[in-house]
């Protein structure tokens, strides 16, 4: 493992699953929008954590990510959903059925509205999923959550922010439930000083804490 600059320790073992989605003109704005959708498999002390399940039919990619971590479906202990939108829960049934012993979690306000093959446990601020701390980051949806690994400064931000061409950006307003809450959530996660931000939409950026602070201080 490569060492992280800043002394927080070795990088967290993570594999991403990336798929492209096309949003037709008129849905998120006047123009067609092409974006990637990312979900993650994370090695943890008691087994693998899957963060979001991506679009429908993403389970094959998730399987490959799990295998790249040296595991199989039986090693998946937890499935954490950052929020209820279809591009984040689209393969939940397939993933949950292939990992039958994994607990499923989502933010409290979102959890009742997520269709799943078994119970989705509501989870909130300060809870831990193995070594990952849950942060309540509402605004994109009422129950949106992010996950933070303090030991490596790694933040899984869901749709609280995105990236494009090396910059951190806000998500489309058309998909946001409360813009004021969303901005408060951004300020809150910027205060963590993350050394690595893993987005649901967009690749990692250099100096992520600075890039996030620059975006917050810039125009909306």
Automatic annotation (TrEMBL):
Domain of life: Bacteria
SMART domains the UniProt entry points to: Lactamase_B
Matching InterPro entries: Metallo-B-lactamas, NDM-1-like, RibonucZ/Hydroxyglut_hydro
Residue ranges of every copy of the Metallo-beta-lactamase domain listed in the record: 36-201
Protein's UniProt name: MBL fold metallo-hydrolase
Organism the protein comes from: Arthrobacter gallicola
């Amino acid at each position: 493992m490569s060492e992280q600059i800043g002394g927080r320790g070795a990088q967290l073992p993570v594999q991403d699953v990336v798929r492209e989605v096309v949003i037709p003109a008129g849905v998120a704005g006047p123009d067609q929008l092409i974006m990637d959708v990312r979900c993650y498999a994370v090695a943890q002390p008691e087994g693998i954590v899957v963060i979001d399940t991506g679009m429908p039919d993403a389970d094959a990619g998730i399987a490959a990510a799990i295998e790249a971590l040296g595991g199989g479906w039986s090693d998946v202990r937890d499935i954490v959903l950052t929020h209820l939108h279809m591009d984040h829960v689209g393969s939940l049934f397939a993933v949950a059925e292939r990992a039958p012993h994994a607990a499923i979690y989502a933010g409290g306000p979102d959890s009742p509205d997520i269709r799943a093959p078994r119970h989705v446990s509501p989870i909130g601020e300060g809870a831990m999923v193995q070594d990952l701390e849950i942060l309540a980051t509402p605004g994109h949806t009422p129950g949106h959550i992010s996950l933070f690994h303090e030991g490596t400064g790694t933040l899984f931000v869901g749709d609280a922010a995105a990236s494009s061409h090396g910059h951190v950006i806000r998500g489309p307003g058309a998909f946001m439930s409360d813009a004021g809450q969303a901005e408060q959530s951004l300020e809150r996660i910027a205060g963590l000083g993350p050394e690595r931000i893993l987005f649901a939409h967009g690749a990692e950026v250099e100096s992520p804490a600075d890039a996030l602070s620059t975006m917050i201080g810039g125009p909306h």
